[in-house]
Amino acid sequence: MGQAESSTEDYDKQQQQHQQKQLIPGLPDEIAMDCLVRVPHQFHSNMKLVCRSWRTLITHPSFYKERRRSGTAEQMVCLIQPLPIPIPSPPQNETESSKKTPSPPQYGLSIYNASHQTWHRIMGPNANTGHIPMFCQCVPLPAFGKLMLLGGWDPKSLEPVTDVYVLDFIGGFKWKRAASMSAARSFFACGVVGDSMVYVAGGHDNQKNALQSAEVYDVNADEWRVLPPMAEERDECQGLTWEGDSRFWVLSGYSTEAQGLFRSDAECYDPKTGSWSIIEGVWPFPNVSARGLTTTITISNQNQLWCFLGGQQFKQSRDNNEILWNVLKSVQLPDDINVTSLCVTAIGQGQNQCCINNHPQQQQRIFVMSSSGGRGVLSSSNCGECECEGKGAYMLEREIKSKGGSIYKWNHVHTPVAFASFPYSASYIFI
């Protein structure tokens, strides 16, 4: 009798240990994994608290590879935006009113979940305020499930900074400080080449002098390396990269002595030769900045530059230094898009492209957001979840027909008032 009871207890312990090792007790791990990858990313931080096995799973990159493979990964548009202005309490007297001076806008990181059509804001790396540098650039690191914030202005001193922060999306949201750039700069060109090389070039210093300097960051080593300077000063320039191309492009910009007169050329850095080359006649719009108006995409192994200039145009480049830029097609922008202030980013490019049942989705999209005329105003009865302040956000979708060819259409993106302010920088990550 005693032996039977002992055997039963041993069996129960074995079963309990087995269940504790299972992701979901009573379910095969294969089925449990199929359930867990469907949980929206916003709940991943909470999932880590359930048990040790879930924490191990959620914090491992393989979990997010499985989400992409199964078609449950989410498309996130990351936006650097001014925070909404709270309605101040009315001054009690004229003296109190006269003492108040307008403060510079505070910036935050907003995320539009294009898969679930939801908006939320991420507290910044500053532990005291949760803010991020003004006018900082955001660059995605899709191979690592991370987002980088680079440069910009200190929100108190209004001076350019060398700061670099990394937001890790794996297992929730986690900030860390990365190695600083060698030079403080703002309004510069930047872009990621391959999986782990982030380039920055141009912009201006704290005296508003346009810069020629450039540097590159190695994500794996957490180190910056200074590059040879560009041939020209380029403030308010645009960085461009393409899938499968190891070069970094700096489009347009202007010199210190010619502020507001945008150059028609571009410079291209080739890491194979370690040198820059100038490409003429790329940006024939001397009164228009390329910043925010351009994005790069790859369609059928063809690298293209899309420009949003009232009539949206995408252009083709040939893979050599004899670059030809041809307008291939135009798609009219929505009437309520403000073409004087745009921010665009492509969705679903390269290794970020969504796959369902191992087949790529036959759809390419570009997120476009314009200024709605303000930063938004919040009160106790206006919690950022009300009607749109404007119709400044759209998704341009290119759908490939089953019999060949494609069609383009604009879909309005509902934007709560707390997220309706103009984004300074935008990027995309698939997680």
From TrEMBL:
InterPro entries: F-box-like_dom_sf (IPR036047), F-box_dom (IPR001810), Kelch-typ_b-propeller (IPR015915), Kelch_1 (IPR006652), KMD1-4 (IPR044595)
SMART domains assigned: FBOX, Kelch
SUPFAM superfamilies tied to this protein: F-box domain, Kelch motif
A GO cellular component entry from the record: cytosol
Region of interest: Disordered: 1-22, 85-106
Domain F-box: 27-67
Pfam (any one): Kelch_1
Gene3D superfamilies according to UniProt: 1.20.1280.50, Kelch-type beta propeller
One GO-annotated biological process of the protein: regulation of phenylpropanoid metabolic process
PANTHER family per the UniProt record, alphabetical: F-BOX_KELCH-REPEAT PROTEIN SKIP20, OS02G0208700 PROTEIN
Protein name: F-box domain-containing protein
